[in-house]
Design a protein that fits this description.
Shape: globular
Radius of gyration: 18 Å
Helix content: over 70%
Number of helices: 13
Order of helices and strands: HHHHHHHHHHHHH
């Protein structure tokens, strides 16, 4: 195996998360006019060709029948919920605020590792989790600002994304990668398709083109994240996900006229610091059973694009 280049890995990751942030700008723009169900449906539909290209290189023998059907079903439901809630939150909340809340997902993974993986979380990691959740409260500022459906959607997306991720850690070594990739996308396609007649609004060529760009950007960013983890150490690459808050602040300011306020900036700082602490703790192989899964850290899983963790495992 070629030696790791952390600089190259970090640059690939920064480029990937910049593309993801641009992807979310388009989601937010379209979300002002169209329902999240419609955006998710067409994002999945237009993403299938890219996933097909990825899976054509999968030489693993077997079928798509899950080894753990109940865990797979729970993960699939969690992923569908994440997709709708995250896309809706991006549509109605400031970008920086949405990211700040979604960044709580790694903290929640640490909590869910206790009942699902049987992991022991020691005092310092508990302190980091509690500090991060305090950061979420700073962003939400209950009592000072109205708690909207968008805030609830972002929090739900963080919880359901954490649940989907921790289930992959539990069953991922035994399930075929193709199944882990396809079930959430197919479920999204079916569920959003059933809802589509009730929310559909006609789209012009530019708006539909925006959906095509969402699918393309998700595919390109996934490839870049894979390249990042193949070139750099996970403990260097994983924290690059937090660069999205910088993109969100810039895009929010210049495109949507959103000026991040002090509570959002402070809360995001606390959440990111807590998440970084946990990431680096997990990078120590003597600390956590989840350390080998550090490569799965990054983008929340919405079921509209391939999850890069299973692809990484397949290519190793």
């Amino acid at each position: 195996m070629a030696p790791k280049s952390n600089l190259k890995g970090a640059l690939f990751a920064l480029a990937a998360f910049g593309i993801y942030a641009t992807h979310d700008v388009i989601v937010k723009t379209l979300g002002a006019e169209f329902a999240a169900f419609q955006i998710v449906f067409f994002s999945v539909l237009l993403g299938f060709p890219y996933v097909t290209v990825m899976l054509m290189r999968d030489a693993t023998h077997g079928n798509l029948r899950p080894v753990h059907p109940w865990w797979t079903a729970v993960r699939t439901v969690a992923t569908v919920v994440t997709g709708v809630c995250a896309f809706y939150a991006f549509s109605v909340l400031p970008l920086a605020q949405t990211y700040a809340i979604l960044f709580a997902a790694p903290l929640l993974i640490t909590v869910l590792a206790i009942p699902i993986l049987g992991e022991t979380v020691r005092l310092r990691r508990w302190a980091a989790v509690i500090a991060g959740l305090v950061g979420v409260l700073i962003v939400l500022r209950p009592g000072a600002e109205p708690f909207t459906l968008g805030h609830f959607a972002a929090m739900t997306a963080a919880v359901s994304s954490a649940l989907a991720s921790i289930i992959v850690r539990k069953i991922g070594q035994e399930e075929r990668s193709a199944a882990l990739l396809l079930y959430p996308m197919v479920a999204n396609f079916v569920v959003m398709g059933l809802a589509l007649p009730f929310v559909y609004k006609p789209m012009d060529a530019v708006e539909f083109g925006g959906l095509a760009v969402i699918a393309l950007f998700a595919f390109l960013a996934t490839l870049l994240v894979i390249a990042a983890y193949r070139n750099g150490e996970a403990v260097i690459v994983a924290p690059m996900q937090y660069s999205q808050i910088i993109w969100a602040a810039g895009y929010g300011w210049f495109i949507f006229g959103e000026k991040p306020d002090a509570p959002t900036a402070i809360g995001a700082g606390v959440i990111i610091a807590s998440g970084l602490y946990i990431l680096f703790r997990e990078g120590r192989t003597d600390t956590s059973r989840t350390a080998p899964n550090l490569q799965g850290r990054g983008r929340i899983e919405t079921g509209t694009f391939p999850r890069f963790g299973p692809i990484l495992r397949r290519r190793r």
